[in-house]
Each structure stands twice: as C-alpha cells, then as structure tokens.
Amino acid sequence: MKPKALVLQAHGSNRDFDVMDALTLAGADPIGIPLNELRMNKTLLADFQLLVIPGGFSYADALGAGKLLALDLASYFEEQISAFVESGKPVIGICNGFQALVKSGILPGNTDGQSTLTFNAQGHFECRWVNLKPVSQTCVWTKGLDEIITCPIAHGEGNFQTLGSFASEQIAISYVHSDGSPANGEYLINPNGSILDIAGICNPRGNVLGLMPHPENHIYSWQHPRHTRGETSGSGLRLFENGVNHAKNL
Predict the structure, then answer these.
(1) DSSP one-letter string for 39-100
(2) For 4-248, which CATH class?
(3) What stretch of H or E contains 242?
C-alpha cells in the first residue's frame, strides 16, 4: 500500500503540485486538500501517513511570511497536528511551509517560540540555485543521505534565527559549497544569513522537517540548470523517498 500524503493547500500556496509530483515519484499517494476543507473535517488528518505544507505565499505573506498560516495551524489544528507528530508520522514544511511551522511553534519544538525566519541578511528576495548537505542522522528525512542536494531557493524571509537552544542533530540540512565544504556564512553560498548556515531543521524526534530550499524542484535530471552540459547530480528526490519509506514502516 502506498502511504497517503496530505498536501495542505492555503490561499497563495503555489508549490503544491510540484511537491505532489515528487511524492508520487517517491512512492506515495499525495492528495491536495484546501485548508478550509480540512478545517471542516479535522479528523481527516488522521487518515494520512504524511503531512506536507508546501511553499508559496500563503495569504500573500500578510503580517509576515507564513504568519497567518501559522495562526491557522496553532488556532484550528493544534491538537490534530500534535497527535500526528507524536505518532511519529513524517511532516515536512518547505519554504513558506517552513515559516509556518516555525512561527506556529511546531519547529524547532523545544524553544518556546523563540525562533523565527526573518528577512534575508542582504535585504532582498533571493531566487537561484544552492547546494545543500544533509547532516542529521536523527531526522528521518535526511538519515543516510550523503550526497549534496542541488536545488533552487526563492524567498525573502529565510534567515533562521533563535534566542533558544536546540540539539546539534536538529540541524538537518546546511548550506555548503558545491564540494561540500562549509559556507561559513558566506553570502551566495548561504543566501539568507541563517545562523550556523542552517537550511533546514527538524524537531527533537526527527520526524518533522522544515527547510527553505525547494528539493521538489529538482527531481528530474533535466531540471538541473546545467543538464545540457552533463551536470545532473544533486537530485532532491531521495529526501522525499526517505520520508515516504519512513511512513511505510510505521
């Protein structure tokens, strides 16, 4: 049986079909469900084995990127999402979805709302390709991955900062040079100025991942911007395969 993946669609989400494509290739059965529909039938969430909050500009980024979606998650779905997470089911939030997970307090999961994703250090929107290194063996989405992932970013508020603390194993994905060497905060390599070059972070249990880049936009070799020159490595598909396989084994 293919695990069922709920892809939450809010007004302004625009990467939902991209991530559904990635989940299908990874062996899941993804279904896009509008937030208002889920709000009318909250018990529906329990019928799924994966939860995905895709990228985009939910509610036009009013009051800040992901803020209103975070309020929805915290106000209407707190019990359902808490139960989903506590059951060990995999959850992923990408870009705007990451912002919503952080601003609702779901991630990092142990800093009591002292973390945020704020404006990029350079003060403007960034849209280009970056290199990512999966580093956490606690996170079910990155465990066992040892190849650099190459994929695009597209955000204006991806600068992860915190006043709290979290375990080093919660740093799931880091911005790196193409050879895997650390970014060390270098602009262009770390596009937004996140502390510790954090591109993605997970909860202490490791089943919830949030990341700013878009691995769902590099799942076919021809999506690589230099594929005509023979560069086709760095697919983000294995990240989704990890999440799907974890769901299958629950």
Answers:
(1) HH-GGGGGG-SEEEE--B-GGGGTTSTTHHHHHHHHHHSHHHHHHHHHTT--EEEETHHHHH
(2) alpha beta
(3) helix 237-248
Q: How far apart are CA 93 and CA 172, in angstroms?
A: 13
Contact residues for 45 (Cβ-Cβ < 8 A; gap 6+): 6, 38, 51, 77, 80, 81, 84
Q: Which residues are catalytic?
A: 95, 214, 216
84-98 pLDDT, tens per residue?
Answer: 999 999 999 999 999
Supply the pLDDT for residue 112: 56
- Is the whole-model pTM more than 0.70? yes
- Whether the CB-CB separation of 172 and 211 falls below 8 Å is answered with yes
What angle (nearest 5°) sits at the alpha carbon of residue 199, between those of residues 91 and 195?
125
Q: Are 211 and 146 in contact (CB under 8 A)?
A: no
What the block records as the tokens of 157 is 């508020």
Residue appearing with tokens 């990890």: 242
